């Protein structure tokens, strides 16, 4: 039997990256999970990433700290209030305040470094162009440009020992599609964390921020129950 | 008088990035220096970066920690011995052990995030394709690919409020050219740190590692004295 190919999977602890990891596993990859601790205001996401990695039988789970909070500029790392209770049309209006400058570029760069170190040609990331239509680094042309860069940027890419591929299997799926796909693959969504404004005591989701609303609507559209606890 | 344009300058504390910063300053940019603390084995570089930023009158100097040591894979972050006393032909033979996977991609990504936050279209980096011919991420085609990515990856790039440019003014210069250029611009090279294997007590340079040898040869070829102290 040939050795199982390795995949570096960016795992945030959220629903999208958990589904992405399950898809990679279903295609026969050994999962090498990578979480980026970018100075989030809450740590529940990283704890969720660890639970998800374990539940999917990942070969390893590394967390690399990148102190993006030093850069400022986003509600996710700064003290800017997270929007609550916005309508779908408000969310659709342009790039949201929760946008973190260059976040996916930083995360994919670290994933690329790890991939080269462990000899993985395949990097999986749960970016999505539908629900996050305002994020420039969630578009197919961005992913293509990064893949091209990856093969120019590295010893393995230039010497041809690894031909890096960036997999973004969720990129054109709706949230409901993602949840159906993950449910079919046995993803335990009770382990995931999505909320931007969780209860500081236990990490329970608020149900009102953009991320919670998209999640709840996705489960409703998929005809499934969201197994996590909401405090509001 | 129009406001001075801002430049994000990646400052390692070494000779190349100090020269790059001086070139940016000579072209009228306000310097916003950025150092990446990527888990180096020694801290003398970062201290040197602070001194260089101050001596060049930088508007600010930020240090962002990116724990690349978590990834492993290089003599600069791992416990692999740093080569000593290699000849120029040995150094020219392929990609050196001191190569850090995806380092420039990670550093430029963080610089891009900072640039977007502070409203700087111009990112300056001291990569050099001559002395580091083995590093894939020191080639012009890599810089061009990153610039393209930068304008796809960011809100400011996509909305057209900033047209990002990556400046690599040293890319085709020899070490002697770089030193002559910096000396003409008044760079105080006594503030810089180059050595891969410094004295752990005071950071004095070894004079024998690849980096020291390239530096010493560069000063010799430029007909100038290297003002730093070598312990060997």
UniProtKB/TrEMBL annotation, chains A, B:
Organismal lineage: Bacteria, Pseudomonadati, Planctomycetota, Planctomycetia, Pirellulales
Name under which the protein is recorded: 7-cyano-7-deazaguanine synthase
Residues that hold ATP according to the record: 11-21
Domain of life of the source: Bacteria
Biological process terms in GO annotation: tRNA queuosine(34) biosynthetic process
Reactions this protein catalyses: 7-carboxy-7-carbaguanine + NH4(+) + 2 ATP = 7-cyano-7-carbaguanine + 2 AMP + 2 diphosphate + 2 H(+)
Cofactor note: Binds 1 zinc ion per subunit.
Keyword list, A-Z: ATP-binding, Ligase, Metal-binding, Nucleotide-binding, Queuosine biosynthesis, Zinc
InterPro entries for this protein: QueC (IPR018317), Rossmann-like_a/b/a_fold (IPR014729)
UniProt-listed CDD domains: QueC-like (cd01995)
Sequence positions that bind Zn(2+): 195, 206, 209, 212
